[in-house]
Structures are given as structure tokens and as C-alpha cells.
Amino acid sequence: MSLSSQTIRGLAAHLDRAVRDVRAIHKLTDDHPGMTVEDGYAVQDALRAIALARGERLAGYKAGLTSAAKMKQMGVSVPAFGYLTDAMRRADGSEIEVASLVHPRIEPEVAFVTKRALAGRCDVAEVIAATEAVVPAIEVIDSRFENFRFDLPSVIADDTSASRFVTGGPPGDPRTLPLDALEVVMEKNGVVVTRGSSAAVLGHPALAIVALVEHLAARGEELPAGSVVMTGGITEAVAVAAGDRVSARVEGLGAVSFRFV
Ligand code: OOG
Ligand code: MG
Q: For the whole model, what pTM was predicted?
């Protein structure tokens, strides 16, 4: 850790203001070149504390940069984790206002909903046993940094670009689905924009949860029952604008769709 606790709180407030003002800022390492990944998570924790103090509730967590397509697109080569609050959630079929976002992009994901807490070291079988359902999802990411450019400490501080998430259905049973081989198709205005397989996420999306739980354990936290976990973009993310209708279909799982206005 290289930053003082005062600087960490200041950077979290700076990021929170950027979200509220819908304004892009310099990536944090421009002003704090010695910032580490640990500093990034400390800023993220402070940002989460601001959101919770405002009355937002923790809805779950996200793993990001878990597929080769995403790592290549963003120039970052290790996964990163973030939190999700109820204020980021939008219903399937709803409308999302582009004016509330800086430069939104969408990515298709498989989301897990947990029914039992997970803590410490676990494996894929334990993740599946603790999972209530898997659902098709689209994450709307919106980096607070200019030109959607960042490095690992900066994107971690920025809650890994989390901004909105939408889950669809019907919910699938993780015990019977081939979770490591689900075909995924994402469309924008009726045209296929990306396609891929859930295998793109670390070979098996439950492995993103194994890594998340290990990350939480190292910080003295667990993954609570009832969490939504976004396991990471299966394909590269795609920019969206007002008027776009978007959807993602996951083989064996159904679909999720909504509109940007
Ligand atoms: C960072 C967040 C990545 C994912 O699913 O890979 C992410 C970003 O690309 O802005 O959410
Ligand atoms: Mg994502």
C-alpha cells in the first residue's frame, strides 16, 4: 500500500462525484503513479462505504477481465473484482438513460445467484452446490476514466467500471447445465454484435466465483447467500447509444433484453 488513508478517502470521493456528475476524470495513476492494486481495492472499499452510507444495499459482486477477449480489449491481463448495489440493478425489459452514463458499453455474462454463503477456499463443485440459479445477464460498464482507458489499480478503484446490471431468465439449474459450454449471442438493434461461449470465462464461469471468494477471504469477507455474481464479459464490450435495443441470449438459459433511451 502506498497511499495514505486520507488520500484513499479523497480518491473515493472524487470517483463518487464523477459518477454523480456523469463526468470523465483522469485515471488515478496519472496523479498517483505509485498506486498499487492493494491501494485500488482500498479506494474501492471506501467508494462502497460511501454508497452504503447513502442507503444503497449490497446486491452482490462482479468478476471482470476474466476472458481473453476482455483482457485484450482493455489491455489488462488479470481478473479484478468489484461490488454491485441495488442502485445499479435494472429490470429485464426496462429502459436505461444514457444521459446518466459517461460512455456506456454492454457485455454478455452468465450471472449466478447464491443460496448459501461461500467463504475461504472453495472449488467449482462447492460453488455449484451453493448456487440457487444461473441467469443470462448483460453488464453495462461505464468507466469513469477518460476514453475508457485505465490500468489495473485505477480500474479496481473505480469498482471495475460497474454501473448497471440486468439479469434475465428463466433461471437455469447449475447442476444440469453444461456451464462451461453455453453459446452466447449478443444483439444490438436486431443485429448480432458479438458471440462466444461461457468457456471463455476462465474455462468455466464458476471459476470466477472461486477466485472471487478467495479474494474476499483475503480481505476477511465472505460471499453472502442471496448474492448476484456477474462472472465477467464473455466477449468484448460494445458501445451503446440512446435508442439502442440490446439483448443477450444464452443457450439453455433464455435471454435478457432492454433499451437505452
Ligand atoms: C473493466 C470491467 C470488466 C468484465 O466483465 O470483464 C468487466 C472494464 O472493462 O471496464 O466487467
Ligand atoms: Mg463485466
A: 0.97
